[in-house]
Amino acid sequence: MNRVYRVVWNSSQGLWSVASELAGGAGKSKTKACVVAAALLGLAGSAAAACTVGGNPIVCSATGTQTTIVGAGPGTSFAQVLDVQTGALISTGITTAVSLSDNATISIGNGAVVENSADNTGAGLWNSGANTIEFQSGTHLTIAQGGSVIAHGSEGTAEAINAMGTDNVIVNHGLIRSQGGGAAIWFQPSSGSNTVFNGPTGTIEHQGGAGNIIGMAAGTMAITFTNQGQLIGSLNFTGGDDTLNLHTGSSITGSVNGGAGNNLLTLNGTGTGSFARPISNFQTLVKNDAGTWTFGSALQGAGITSTQVAGGTLILDADASNYTGSMTVDAAGTLQTSAEFAPLAITDNGLVRFAQIDDVSYAGLLSGAGGIEKTGAGTLTLTRDQATTGLTTITAGTLQLGDAGPTSTTGSVAGDIANNAALVLNRSNALVLAGTISGTGSVTQLGGGTTTFIADNSYTGGTTITAGTLQLGNGGTTGGVVGDIVNNATLAVNRSNTLNLAGAISGSGALRQMGVGTTVLSGANTYGGATTVAAGTLKAAAIDTFSANSAHTVAVGATLDTAGFSQRVAALRNAGTVSLLGTAAGSTLTITGAYVGDNGVLKLGTVLGGNASLSDRLVLSGSGASASGHTTLQITNLGGLGAQTSGSGIEVVSAVNGATTTAQTSRDAFALANGHVDAGAFEYRLHAADAQGAGESWYLRSETTVAPPTAAPPTAAPPTVA
Description:
The protein is rod-shaped. Among the domains are: 190-199 and 210-337, no CATH class; 567-704, no CATH class. It has one helix and 74 strands. By secondary structure, it is mainly beta. 1% of the residues lie in helices and 42% in strands. The strands form eight sheets. The protein has a 16-stranded parallel β-sheet that branches.
């Protein structure tokens, strides 16, 4: 085939260069060529040739500068191998530097440079501008670290790399630069696919970052672009289904536009990365691998309709509250956001972390098998019943369930809670928390509703009841807390078995024993509200564990049990059973206010003996203390053998410091069960007042039950025998 060439002056090299003027196919047009005979190519190309042209492979070494075009463009040199070795230089002035056809393999070594300086001087072998490197289809181009491909010229249709066909792979670990003319990389065809990989040491640049890094003809060309390095300029795709893979450590200085088609953006790597550039026309965002990416662009503004966190952490650093696409967090993934930025619907099978430094409510819904984490010093308020079943972790700040209003009827989490900061419950209606609450944090019942704990919780930061009711258990065998409780509303217990509350209960609130089980108090309780034993048993485990500031009420069928430990209460109304029985007699239950017997039972342990015998006692103390109503005393003999009492007898109800008991009036406040209790040969009965009939106390006095011996009839004298 005959060829024609143009001769041009290479100002950077200080010599004339010869370039082909043959049209190589449809493309971008050029003008102003100077045509010469084919012989000129051989004359000019041999002066400083550093490449072994004419064979396969072509090897370019550092022995000199290659100043003429390598390759013959379209339709020639199929499967050509080009090895531009370390330190080699191909510098062709205004002509194309490398022009190959299909299935080529091009390697640019460390320190090697391939460059030209096209300035609107010709169309190139492909009739597509004097590109620095150009090729057709199926070609693999690799630029090593330290290697460079540079288009110095200002020609708008001359790129550093121009792929004329499809199925090409460009791998860059060095530098690809367009000095100010065309794009750094141009894809000529209107369909098919091509791949670009920019490695960690790679830079692809449109000089100054003002232009496009890549360009392509209109159509459906699909580009897969992977960036681990630096992109200086904008990245604009056109009509195909494109994929942009960004890795941690990479950067882009310009905007990113996916163009038409269905486009995918992936964030990858094991380190940390950030993306906050203007972005548009990407439909799918996927976060892969174990690294952390901060995404600072608005999802809805980018056109994204599907977001997946497949692995690692995705931090949403822009407002996505208006995002209406799907948001899915896989098992290995974490989505980090804040309440004001979070999408309103999230499928959470991994972890959603709210990094909340201020106080904000979240009205969205999380569903799935994943967990929730609250970090930051602020308060996150959940106003919907979340449907995730994984662990909820409170690392810092406050997690509040419900928004405090009188109509606040939603706001909850399912599953266990690891609370190392603060959990606040602020509902106006019933809330049941079935999961276990652990950690070092605190819990506050703030709303006017009732919160029920189903699990035996182990958190150690204390419990505060500000309003409403905190209920432990729901009629079963679990539901409890550890540690102290500040109770300014209502603490209720509804268990069917034994629950030990070892912490101190303080505050102005009330205690309600609801379940059929036994609640054992062992702390130094000082709360001031009412104590109601509606069912089951409220039992003491130490002296003065019943609050001396609380008025106690015992319902029918319920029991207040001191277990033999002396107690003091403010008042007592007894329609059930009050038991002072322990392992030994001598304990007291002191009441400083009113004691009302509502046909209840008072159980006392007594050593039934003489006057000095020990007995449990009900003590009414103070001028405001009184006993009224009717109470049945049940006396249990604790080892007494029975003896004759003298004087007042064994004191079982004491009235001191001005207290009254009806002992001087109706004498009906107390009655002994069955009228008497027996020990040995003695029968003890209950008496109001002392032996002189004075005072308000009540006593047991004994009488013998053995009848005195009957005297034998006189013996008749025997008859006298006369």
